[in-house]
Automatic annotation (TrEMBL), chain A:
Any single GO CC term annotated in Swiss-Prot or TrEMBL for this entry: plasma membrane
Compartments it resides in: Cell membrane
Lineage of producing organism: Bacteria, Pseudomonadati, Pseudomonadota, Alphaproteobacteria, Acetobacterales
Domain of life according to the entry: Bacteria
Record-level GO BP terms: alkanesulfonate transmembrane transport
Record domain ABC transmembrane type-1: where: 77-257
Membrane topology: Multi-pass membrane protein
Protein name: ABC transporter permease
InterPro entries xrefs: MetI-like, MetI-like_sf
PANTHER family: ALIPHATIC SULFONATES TRANSPORT PERMEASE PROTEIN SSUC-RELATED, ALKANE SULFONATE ABC TRANSPORTER-RELATED, MEMBRANE SUBUNIT
SUPFAM superfamilies referenced in this protein's UniProt entry, alphabetically: MetI-like
Automatic annotation (TrEMBL), chain B:
Domain of life of the source: Bacteria
Species lineage: Bacteria, Pseudomonadati, Pseudomonadota, Alphaproteobacteria, Acetobacterales
Organism: Komagataeibacter swingsii
Keyword match RNA-binding: no
Protein name listed in UniProt: Sulfonate ABC transporter ATP-binding protein
Gene Ontology MF terms: ATP binding; ATP hydrolysis activity
TM regions (residue ranges): none
Amino acid sequence: MPANVIPSASVRWHGRTVFQCVDARALLRYAAPVIAVLLWQGACSAGIVSTRLVASPVQVIMTGWGLLRDGTLGANLGVSLARAAAGLAIAVVLGVGLALVSGLSRLGEDIVDAPLQILRTLPALAMVPLFILWFGIGETPKIALVALGATFPVYLNLHKGIRSIDPRLLEMTRTLGLSRMQTIRDVILPGALPDLLVGLRFAVGMSWLMLVVAEQVNAESGIGHMMMEAQDFMRTDIIMVGLVIYGLLGLVSDQVVRLMERAFLSWRPVHGRGQAA
Amino acid sequence: MNAVAMADGMHDVTPSRDGGVAVHGLTRRFGHGPAVLDGLDLTIAPGEFVALLGHSGSGKSTLLRTLAGLDPVHEGTLARPDAVSVVFQDSRLLPWKRVWDNVVLGQAGADRRERAVAVLGEVGLGHRVDAWPLTLSGGEAQRAALARALVREPAFLMLDEPFAALDALARLKMQRLVARLWARHGCAVLLVTHDVDEALMLADRAIVLDHGRIRTDLAIPLDRPRHHADPGFIHLRGALLDALGVHDD
């Protein structure tokens, strides 16, 4: 009796899809990149794609392992990390300092904000030739370039955060008789912290971008240098190891800032579910 | 706009000697427009509970902001106690500080937390001491704001439509709470409200503001606790509505 069988079968099938859908979607999300890598490997192995132009995934992994074991990767990664960290640290200090000056006083805003808004429209990478002339070819121009690129996101976001503090809260602190310093410490800075962290995330992304260029233009060490050297020897495998490392660095540093957000902004309902002790 | 800059608008405010509030000839206009407050005189005795009514635009908010020291005194004089507190229509709690920390914001001393816990217990929020403000209900947030006002032991407490945003049930509970707290603390209170019944339930005196002047000053000589069905209450309700220009047909 087909009329009887079809509905019951479809109902059962329907019930199963509800559960399977969740798994299937999650599975698909992970499966898609894996399949892409497998196809890539297949294309290389079958000789469809020249391994001189694109190294196969297995080759990239083997090369990466080799570079890691002979210390090349570790040394270059260390140099790159140190440059990014130094540049980012300068950018945070500079960006936070300038944003505080221009956010907390009108005079400061008049002096600081306009020049920075003009400078901001310059593509930071266009400064590379000038930086090399000014700072030579040592570490200084690389760190300076990272600092230059990363300062603006920090400054712009923190400045916006300070300026967009709810005026009703500031009014409330006046009726409570809080001093200027207390207001800055208890109201303005914590209120602007979410924006500062957004700026920090942009700044971290920006510092990797700056580093790539700085290390490829003129460098004796670093991941970018390792990749440029590989270019001379047509070592696409090493270049791709470098790309993977840059990707991982971006991913990890973004996660670090996310964790900072979770730690510092626990008062927000999204993060703070069940926080009431 | 410079929201961060804090103007000091309190040059003409003198501390009152007896803890009461005295306003004389207070005039305030914005630009060249008509006066929002027009030679206003108002006296609030120490410990007196005054309700301030009036239509939107009658100058209620400007008067309260001037009394709170948020707006400057351009013309006229104002004497009020140093210890004043304001509760706004919105709680204005800092979302990044826990409830107890909001209550004693800017207060020094090692016993900050104990004081906060004590006053939160008084307003019925003893169970939410360590909560984040964004997890509070509207009524709870206003209770916390009330606690923040009370912990400063004000001689003069200003309430700017503090229950307007609450649901009817929460509003009734809050009114009773305010009545209890006023009886215990004995501070002078100015309650800005649109609600005639609320004014009659709580206040010693109701003032109706109209075009920047006090149009009606009505004593409410009813015994407490008060009841809506009381003939005196009904009579005063009619008088107050009349003063507000709302007439029974």
